[in-house]
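Re: Re: token formats

Sure, here are both.
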Amino acid sequence: MLYEELLTKLKEKADGKYAEFHGRLLKNENIKLIGVRIPELRKIAKLFKGDEETLLAFPDEYYEVTFIKLTAVSMLGYENFIKYIDYCVSLLDNWATCDCVSAKCITEHKDDFLPYIRKYAAAEGEYFQRFALVSLLHYYVEEKYAETIYAIVERCDTSLYYVHMAAAWLIAEMLVKHYESAVGFLSEHSLDRKTHNKAIQKACESFRLSGDRKNYLKGIKR
């Protein structure tokens, strides 16, 4: 498929009202949207199976094209996925594409992928760090990785809004699934006050925590 053919296909699926709505959510006026919904983008990404090199050579003029690139790479087996992941992460410029990258191959290669997560967490870019945190959220919320998660969260720059929100989301999930461990981490006051409190807020919004645990967490807000 040529780039012009891809644009034609996308514009056939365009929804102007959705483009306007999604544009407001992205909060980035530099992003150009056609207005195609995610299920359609995922279907189109599948059309490039076996022809990822052609797709990756297309310009990143539109949000949807970048999203399709990231989705297509996410569908690859781990060895091929790794070939392209640095390039793909370099394309991230908004929270939505960052959060929607879902590579099932990582679930069978968690230890192998950790060096990449550490590398992105240590990078200066806001979305490099968010990608690292969201990857931990998607694949690593286990007791086995608890100390790794806390160490990486401490390293990230939570003064950056989308890093702050991802860190709070991740720690909230740890509070829900591994309460004692996560409370121990919060008691060390390693997080800035804002992220500490946001993690507690998000955890307390979950129906998966008991009332007693929610009351305790509210009591350790800073």
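Second one below.
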Amino acid sequence: MTEIQDMRSISDVRSISYDAVVIGGGAAGMAAALELDAEGFSCAVIEREDHLGGILMQCIHNGFGLHEFKEELTGPEFAERFINRTAKSKIAVYLNTTVTQFTAVEPSALDSLIPSFRVQNYSLLYCVSPSGIMQITCRAVLLAMGCRERNRGNIRIPGFRPAGIYTAGLAQRLVNIEGYIPGKEVVIIGSGDIGLIMARRMSWAGCRVKAVVEIMPYPAGLTRNIVQCLNDFDIPLYLSSQTTNILGKDRVQGIEVTPIENGVPVSDKSFRIDCDTVLLSVGLIPENELSRAAGIELNTATNGPLVDSFLMTNMDGVFACGNVLHVHDLVDWVCEESRRAGRYAASWLRGERPSLQIKTKAGSHVRYVNPSSADPEKENTVYMRSMIVKNDAVLEVRLDNQVIKTKKERLVQPPEMISFKLGPKDFEGKNYSPDSILEFIIY
């Protein structure tokens, strides 16, 4: 794998500036940075780990890149292609470096920092690196910090705090990177994709995966992972089942499972599954602490930033893309969205600004719509997730209650993200204003 220079000496970074800074060196961060570099702007990627690639580096299974590269790759293979491109570019990469704070600053304040760096809109970032604290000034910031796993505290399962409870992603790192097997008899709570993939991985490692327990009436992961990771290994999947207790004091001894009927747990039908290890695969949350501290408005449906058609947040010149914006089902879509974010940031740096913005709204059977506004004068890519499982579904777009576009979907289900295109032709002859609403409905 191509090596990338880690850190500069502290004398080089005390008063450093770039046109743009990308926070996060995963697929999203590299894709966005490569677009900025191609557009001729100076760019830096700041990554807190000691390598680029993000979570992809521990995903040794295949299934990546079918859309992006038209071939099937493992996670590290997918990441390596972007790492090699980044190494050949002019992008500055800072590894083992964490952004602790960033803020918008008045133009006059920069005179004392970097007299030659005079711009109308810019941000000041504070970072902690192996060489100490450094400051970076830039005209655009791209948030690409990815997401994190929900843990036991988020879902409040009763019981003591015995050894043997892990998030699925942590278990994946232990097995694939560190070479440790966390247990012998495993139960997975939640049917998210990481959990499903770990069911297969633990089986390959010689462990016995006794069950996957899902509180919803449908799986949370992709259909292909249900087939390849559970069905192929005869691993039971309990749907509409709630984990009501984790048993054991010093080490996990089992879990208690209670079936849900008509939305109500039926305690009389509770049963026990013996195990020594529990893996939690109960959802992902965008890494939003840095965004929240900076004053960026968050979307209550996704927990990521609210962005306009430029993928720009409520802070001028601050953009968001990838899983920090909303959790994607495929890294290919992460790269697609992040490239657009890089192009939008480049447009911003050239002085272009979004024109009329029409707010988007999640209607019937739609969990969320991203971005939160669309530009009727340009091509828009809108992402959303269904709240229902339905064959031969119809996605309908309404402008102020008037249908302007429909799209047939062979199958919609919550685990799979839906992509939708809207362009100037869809708005031709339509009356709209800044107060208009674009509503997305599935039936």
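Residues 5-13, 112-119 have pLDDT under 50 and may be disordered. The first helix runs from residue 10 to 13.
- S.
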